[in-house]
């Protein structure tokens, strides 16, 4: 995944502070955010690397990130960091079933959905 951003340093600061992602440098000085087994490459607007999306624009992404962290802790962390919640926690449907989601925006206005899968206790005899 690639995010086109207005200011790479500002974006790295946000994702590191708010979402605990780890900044990395690779290749010829390219920058990205690592989390779990994934990473998000960052492109500076008007300096995108080829090939890229047809219309790379800061603030045009809508990301869903899955976590095991309870939403009470997510909300407390966001409030402590002065990060406004756009919506949530609210029920949604994820790729693998029901989820609960909290929405916020990054510095470019990208919508970030932080979700947890709703795990029900097994019922058996």
Rounded mean pLDDT score: 92
Shape: globular
Order of helices and strands: EHEEEEHEEE
Roughly how much helix do the residues carry, as a percent range?
10-25%
Q: Report low-confidence residues grouped into runs of 5 or more.
A: 121-125
- Radius of gyration of CA atoms, rounded to a whole number: 16 Å
Count every beta strand, where a strand is a DSSP E run of 2 or more residues. Answer: 8
Strand arrangement within the widest β-sheet reads 1-4-3-2
What percent of residues are in strands?
Answer: 35-45%
- Structure classification: alpha/beta
Separate helix tally = 2
Span between N and C termini?
44 Å
Task: Summarize the biggest pleated sheet.
Answer: 4 strands, mixed
């Amino acid at each position: 995944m690639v995010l086109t951003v207005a200011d790479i340093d500002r974006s790295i600061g946000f994702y590191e502070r708010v979402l605990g992602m780890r900044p990395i440098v690779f290749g010829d000085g390219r920058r990205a955010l690592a989390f779990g087994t994934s990473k998000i490459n960052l492109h500076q607007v008007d300096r995108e690397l080829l090939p890229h999306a047809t219309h790379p624009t800061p603030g045009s992404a809508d990301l869903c990130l899955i976590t095991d962290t309870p939403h009470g802790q997510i909300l407390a962390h966001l409030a402590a960091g002065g990060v406004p919640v756009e919506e949530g926690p609210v029920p949604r449907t994820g790729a693998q079933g029901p989820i609960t989601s909290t929405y916020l925006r990054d510095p470019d206005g990208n919508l970030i959905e932080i979700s947890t899968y709703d795990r029900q206790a097994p019922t058996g005899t």
